[in-house]
Structure formats: structure tokens, C-alpha cells
Amino acid sequence: MVEKVTVLGAGTMGHGIVQLYAQAGYDVFMYDIKDEFLEKALTRISHNLDMLIQENAITASEKESILERISISTDLKEAVSGARFITEAVSENLTIKFDLFKQLEEIIEEDTIIASNTSTFSIQQLSEGVQKTDRLIITHFFNPAHLVPLVEVVKSPGTSQDIIDRTVEVLKNIGKKPVVLKKDIPGLIANRLQAALVREAFYLLDNGIADAEDIDLAVTAGPGFRWAFIGPLETADFGGLDIWKSVVENLAPVLSKEEKIPPFVEQKVQSGNLGTKTGNGLFTYAGNEEIQRKITERDENFIRLSNIKNNSK
Ligand SMILES: NC(=O)c1ccc[n+]([C@@H]2O[C@H](COP(=O)([O-])OP(=O)(O)OC[C@H]3O[C@@H](n4cnc5c(N)ncnc54)[C@H](O)[C@@H]3O)[C@@H](O)[C@H]2O)c1
Q: Where is NAD(+) bound in this sequence (predicted)?
């Protein structure tokens, strides 16, 4: 087991990944460009852990030990010294990532793995920013990283099998469900599937088929209820491939194939109605308090679902 790991970038994703490592017993260094970002990340981790205590997933004394395993630094050399596994979760900007890779390559050990959490750059694009491509890999976590089990792993033709095996081992050690893609593809697996569904949800809303609450309910009380345990392909086997042949043949011609975002979403983006981060989006929220309550409710439900899944066959 890798003892010391480092996470670069302490934002939305980085702080959650740091928490996962510390919870699994790793000594983890969290690095960012400003102390205030690191302090804010520690506060977020502390709140996340409080919620786990409240849901009986950890104890108060475990929280203390978890926090003790986290070190923070704005000094890259100090943060990565002795680390055999580095997760890069800095801003989605190729210049920033390449600059960091360049600095890293000058100071890290030969066999230290660099795992990027990029959500939009391909492994080929990332490879252009490093000298040594065999130890570069993508580990794509989902938000909130400390709660959603999936991590998609993308290798390049140059990534060695040993690096893939060690990455999968680390991810399993921190309680994740890694899926290694055989080939790179834009959007990987989960975001392609999500985007297909969200495009259709936008279409249904835009065409007045139902309101936003009911479209979401049709997913959470319907297919989404099953998907926590059986995926779309097993669902097809359970339903019968003859049935699914007809479903796809009959519906594929009438599904949305829109390549552009619908104007009603574009308008919301233009007017700054981005969802919970700005106060309004597809739903209306009664102020910051309601938004915070909804986020807490979401995370509590995710913890409960995790418990159910961990205890199920
Ligand atoms: N937010 C998501 O839902 C999500 C999901 C999956 C993957 N990702 C990916 O994770 C990565 C991070 O995204 P995020 O949402 O956490 O972004 P974020 O903006 O919340 O955090 C990025 C952090 O990186 C820090 N940073 C910027 N330049 C740096 C540098 N040179 N050295 C160290 N730290 C630096 C910033 O100060 C900030 O704290 C991106 O590659 C993104 O595509 C995001």
C-alpha cells in the first residue's frame, strides 16, 4: 500500500479526494497556490466528516485521526516529496496543468504516478505536457468525490500495465469503484450516458411535456431507482432483448438529436441563472438557506445509499 500521497488543487474535487485518502489511512499532502484555499478546503473536509459522524459512518475520534493525516502546503517540493501517487485536480486549464507537470517532473521519483482528474482533456492531450508518458493516467472522479464511488481510469498507449494496476489498487484502497476504459473517448462512459439523458430531459422540458419536478421524478422513481443496482445493459437483459430491440427501433427516430443547447438553457446561462451556485436555474430556490439545506439533504441521502450498497450483495 502506498503510504504518502499528494493531491494538487484543493477546490471542489481536490478537497474531497484528499478526504478519501485520509479516511483510508494514507498520509496525504494537499497543495494549492494560496494558504486561504487550503484552509477553506480543510473547513469543507471537516464539515463533510461531521456529516459522516451524524450518519454514523465514522466516529468523532476517527474524524480527529483523519484530519491529523492531512498536511497542507503551498510549496510543491514539500508537498510531493516522498509521494508515489499524485492526483492532479487543479483548474481545467491546459497551460496550468502543463506548467505543473513540468515542475513535477523535475522533482518526483521515476516511478511516481501522476493521475489527472481532468474532465475534458484526453490522455493524448495531457501526454503532450509530459516527458515521461508511461506513468501518466487519468482518474476521473465524480462530484462530490468523497461520496460517489465511480472513478473512470483512462490510459494512453504508453501507460504501463504496472501503472494501471497500481492506480486501480490505490482507488480500491480508498473505497472507489474504478472502471478502466479500453479506449479513450470524449466524455468517457458516464458523462456520455448522462449527456444523452440530459439532452432528452431538456427536450421534454422545452416541449412542455412535463414540468422539471415531474421529469426528474420520472427518473428518480423510475429508471434511476433501478440504476443504483443494475445498469442499462443488465436492465436490457432483464427486460428481454426482443423488447429492447423494439424500444430502440421505435424510439430512436423520435428522440432528440439536437447538437446545440436549447435556447431556453442558453438564456438562463446568459442571464446568470446557473442553478444552485447562483440561486436560480431550472428550479427556483428560496435563498441560500434552502440551497444549503438541499445540498445537505443530497449528501445525507448519498451516504445512506452508500450504506445500503455496501451492505447489499
Ligand atoms: N467540478 C466537477 O464536478 C469535476 C468533476 C470531475 C472532474 N473535474 C476536474 O477536476 C479538476 C479540478 O476541478 P474543480 O472543480 O475541483 O476546480 P476548482 O476550480 O474548484 O479547483 C481548482 C483548484 O486548483 C487550484 N489551482 C489552480 N492553479 C493551481 C496550480 N498551479 N497549482 C495548484 N493548484 C492550483 C485553484 O486554486 C483551485 O483551488 C479539473 O481538471 C476538472 O475538470 C471536475
A: 9-14, 32, 92, 97, 119, 143, 277
